[in-house]
């Protein structure tokens, strides 16, 4: 029991510390705090989700995607993981995959306006990318 408390207290403290760092707009440095917390509890999907967000905000979309996928693996019934995955894929301009991720989130939480909005933004970006890729034929 004592060993469990030694692990849980630092993780709880780090979550609280991260919350304060996050709210003071120092998001770029927050992944370090989450990394430490994840080392103590690698099975906490919330930690992976939050680090994914921080990576994305600091321009590290590939790392954000890795954490989002880990989050989904740990807690596949939690829509937030799919939202994080979709956001990372949007940043990587992988719009089809982003649509799929957001739709998976919509299936889990049909009432989420945020998830629906993200899906439609991804769909619009996919359409725009598709139209930009078409060549205009000339009429002779």
UniProtKB/TrEMBL annotation:
Annotated signal peptide: none
TPR repeat spans: 79-112
Entry keyword annotation includes Cytoplasm: no
Keywords on record: TPR repeat
Xref: PROSITE patterns: TPR
Domain of life: Eukaryota
Pfam family, one: TPR_8
PANTHER family: ANKYRIN REPEAT FAMILY PROTEIN, OS03G0680200 PROTEIN
Name the UniProt record assigns to this protein: Stress-inducible protein
Organism taxonomic ancestry: Eukaryota, Viridiplantae, Streptophyta, Embryophyta, Tracheophyta
């Amino acid at each position: 029991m004592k060993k469990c408390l030694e692990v849980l207290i630092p993780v709880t403290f780090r979550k609280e510390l991260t919350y304060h760092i996050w709210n003071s707009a120092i998001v770029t440095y927050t992944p370090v705090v989450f990394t430490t917390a994840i080392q103590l509890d690698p099975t906490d999907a919330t930690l992976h989700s939050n680090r994914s967000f921080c990576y994305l905000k600091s321009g590290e979309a590939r790392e954000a995607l890795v954490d989002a996928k880990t989050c989904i693996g740990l807690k596949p019934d939690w829509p937030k993981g799919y939202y994080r995955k979709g956001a990372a894929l949007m940043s990587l301009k992988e719009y089809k995959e982003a649509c799929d991720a957001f739709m998976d989130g919509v299936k889990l939480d049909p009432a989420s306006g945020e998830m629906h909005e993200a899906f439609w933004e991804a769909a619009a970006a996919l359409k725009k990318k598709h139209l930009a890729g078409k060549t205009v034929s000339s009429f002779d």
